[in-house]
UniProtKB/TrEMBL annotation:
Residues of the full protein shown: 421 to 710 of 710
Protein name as catalogued: EAL domain-containing protein
Domain of life: Bacteria
Domain EAL: 24-278
Amino acid sequence: YAKAHSGDNYQFFDKDMNTRAVERHFIESHLRQALEAQEFVLHYQPLVNLRSGLITGAEALLRWNSSERGLVFPPDFIAVAEDSGLIVPIGRWVFLEACTQARRWLNAGLQQISIAINISTVEFRRRDFLAGVRSIIEGTGVDPKFLQLEITESALMQDSKAGASILRELKALGLQIALDDFGTGYSSLSYLKQFPIDILKIDKSFVQDINGGNEDGIIVSAVIGMGNSLKKRVIAEGVENVAQLDFLNALQCEEGQGYLFSRPVPADAFAALLSDGISQKLEVARRFAF
Ligand code: C2E
Ligand code: MG
Ligand code: MG
Ligand code: MG
């Protein structure tokens, strides 16, 4: 197709493809050593009760502290990790590290909060996934009721029978299940009936432009209403300003997460947030809302 175009077009297209292939190759080859070189780190973003401003949990978010590139964010390496299978050992590290951190906070006498961990569809579908979860829970002694696994609709799509059975086993262990990025996948509302899901996370793309009567606002309002009626916890992602917060509060959305409260931060900074609380910051944000 590129050849059909003449001159500059062809050149630019070709160069762009080449750059991307080189970038991908760089990431994959360095990702292989990143685990051993201990270049991964988890940052934590608070989940917040929207009425009280109190922290209800943390989402663990992976960062790659590359010796050559500095801090690299998931959108730049998760897909490569999934395609190469590296997501499996990386995901196991994430799970172990998050559980270990939960123990550290508990041992330090901090309030026990739940930790949300993102699980790739590639990990979820593996036969040894459950065994891995079990052994890390046993090894770290973390109470499973404080763990939330975030999966996306794609994990449940292909083999829904197998998916349902894994979710049931996770529930039997005592973990909570969240459907992440809700509304962006091939959402089928029947998932909510078919699978034991505790939490709906409304994708940030819907939250970004909510105001009064526009389409995103209507969708968010419907999801919150449905989630509340089905007795699920509903969490809005990507809350960046007070107008969004007020809109969500008016619709009785219980929980949210977003830059308005805090960006994802290293474990130490998160512990400081836990002891300081967030409500104070919220008050400040409100005062500037005019
Ligand atoms: P996600 O699970 O939907 O996580 C939320 C993403 O939204 C995070 O991006 C977070 O930094 C960002 N975010 C939070 N609040 C705001 C806000 O107010 N505005 C905006 N614009 N963004 C906000 P991040 O950390 O870059 O992660 C991106 C995605 O990568 C995650 O989306 C998740 O799907 C994936 N990911 C992150 N960590 C892991 C991991 O440990 N394992 C796996 N398999 N995937 C991960
Ligand atoms: Mg998530
Ligand atoms: Mg996710
Ligand atoms: Mg999400």
